[in-house]
Amino acid sequence: MPGPRVCVIGLDGTPASYLRRRFAEGALPNLAALAQQGELLSSWAPLPPISSVSWASASTGTNPGRHGVFGFVERKPQTWEITFTNVMTIREPAVWQHAARAGMRSIVINVPGTYPAQPQQNGILVSGFVSPVLEKSVQPPSLLPFLNERGYLIDVDLGLGHKDLEAFSEQLFTHHAARTRVLCDLLDTEACDLFYAAFTGTDRLHHFLWEQMEKGEEPWAGRFAAYYDAIDHSVGQIVQRLDDDCRLILLSDHGFCRLDEEVFVNRWLERDGWVALEDPAQSIASIIPDRTRAYCMDPGRLYVNLAGREPGGIVQPSEYESVRAELKSWAESQPWVTRATVREEAFSGPMAEHGPDLVLSSPNGLDLKGAVRTKELQAKGRLTGMHTQDDAFVLVRGAHPGGEGKVEDVAATVLDGLGLDPSSLDGRVLR
Amino acid sequence: MPHTPAFTVWFTGLPQSGKSTLADLLAYELRESRGLSALEILDGDVIRTELSRGLGFSREDRDENIRRIAFVCKVLTRAGVPNIVAAVSPYREAREQARASVGRFVEVYCAATADQCAERDYKGNYARARAGEIAHFTGVDDPYEPPASPELTLDTVGRSPEDCLAEIMQKLEALGYLTPPGGGDAGKAYSSEEEAEVASRLESLGYM
Predict the structure, then answer these.
(1) Nearest to B23 by CA among B51, B45, B6
(2) Out of B25, B190, B206, whose CB is closest to A262?
(3) Chain A contacts of B200, Cβ < 8 Å?
(4) pTM metric for this prediction
């Protein structure tokens, strides 16, 4: 069975610093060996650093101003209703689409933002988060029995993380074993040019158990380490199925750190007179437009309530720049903001104008939220880990590219490995 | 998804007359409600920085710009990809040539006066053009020739974008370019039940 020419393994949310720490302890032998053969680069996620945005960048090699994904949730145009981003939101071709156009075959497993699975030209695709139904996540559909026989699940039951950590932790491991089984069996039985798979259990582990890991709180710290041992073992199983000349790329889509408090940005905006909310408030549909000058959508996307764009928007186009400048100044005076980046600095490309007017970055430990159901300004919830834009990683077997990476580099490096031209992408080829 | 032939929806009108807003809204509707995932928007501002980079705003260059856009529309339409153009396209003759070249062509005129457009011009281009800082600005010192018989004329000042969208969708159905929806969630990325599941999962990770 000819192996792939390029193999990508994603570890959702794995920080470079965590891997380095474990390597220093002599742990994670398969990943450490790869890091020794190449160079583990610290890497940056696009803004905002969440999986829907970042995986779209990793698979298309473009910034959100080109691929058009700015969050998991968007305001439906000309309404205050919310809608969910999905594969149809992405405006740039993924590397597997480039490969298909060149007559190559791809196997793509569990990459977030690929739901509903689109028919593949002679390839295989199983969608990742957020895929509510397995049946609509599999192309070709004839692959479904193969997945079911191996106990494949798209995701763990995230609700368990909030009410039964023991059961959640147990499911993380069984879920991971099934995913590994599927990946290895596909590599054993299906020829392809590009193999692109993501492990997303790492992100779930971090969200619910990061602080426990940091504090050494048992049994969770031990489970955390053991989960990474399982990840390492899976990476080893995949690597032993690859030819030596296969370009192997590992990446994470963002970093992670401890979450001390969630910051409910709309409540801060409300306190300072920027937004008015109905009581009780459920979503942005609870915004009172004629008393709102700006509002927030997850995770820290600020929008001016602009006449002609937002229904009932009260900021006139002629006031837009001055209101945005005032909003930026307000945001940067808050202790939970390290930077407010204007749209044209954060994004470039034809979709940039669909992005938020400002994107907020926060200090590690303070996680920015668009939720409006709580009336508190800040609170500690059940989640103990949060995303960071920095401290992601990228590693190309045998390559020493130097410097820092960014998530978009992955796609450029994939196309280069397939012998395709990456010059139109935003990322650089990591050699 | 029922198969319908591809088509070009061509929005024309003065700068800030609502072309891009309606193009985006239409694209969203076609993707989300009609499942047309392979769909392209050709926005005049973007075309000017890519396909037509280097062209100016003389009549000759403007016509060349429209000829290039029309060629892309023709190729996309032939390949079965519906496409939406949002371009000032000020000259009637150039638009008629585009119509002849593309074939399946739906011309939508965004009717608004220069004063009305200037009022909602948050970029400030009308003001700069009127102050003489920008030359060849359509509606100020360059002409705009309204279409003689567009498929649709929309009053984009007096009506909401959603109203305009509804009329465009009706027109596309009437012309046979779209099949009227069969009801339910057919063609949407997420059904209503799936949306509830997605919301629940996102909430578990703090994203709602």
Answers:
(1) B45
(2) B206
(3) 159
(4) 0.80
Which residues of chain B have a CB within 8 Å of the CB of A162? 204
Distance, CA of B41 to CA of A383 (rounded, Å): 40
Q: What is the pLDDT of residues A307-329, one digit of tens each?
A: 988 999 999 999 999 999 999 99
Beta strand spans in A225-317 (E)? 247-251, 255-258, 261-264, 294-297, 301-304
Separation of alpha carbons B168 and B10, rounded Å: 11
Closest CA to B204 of A359, A58, A163: A163
Q: Which of B122, B160, B205 shows the shortest C-beta gap to A158?
A: B205
Residues of B in contact with A350 (CB under 8 A): 41, 43, 46
User: What domains lie within chain A, and their CATH numbers?
Assistant: 6-259+385-417 (3.40.720.10), 261-379 (3.30.1360)
Task: Give the catalytic positions of B in this structure.
Answer: 89
**What domains are there in chain B, each with its CATH number?**
8-177 (3.40.50.300), 181-208 (no CATH)
CB spacing of B206 vs A86 below 8 angstroms: no
Report pLDDT digits (tens) over B10-38. Answer: 999 999 999 999 999 999 889 877 888 88
- Strand-pair partners of A256: A387
For the stretch B165-182, pLDDT in tens is 988 998 888 787 887 665
Q: For the segment B100-130, what is each residue's pLDDT rounded down to a tens digit?
A: 999 889 999 999 999 999 998 888 899 999 9
Do A407 and A253 touch, CB atoms closer than 8 A? yes
Q: Are A293 and A358 in contact (CB under 8 A)?
A: no
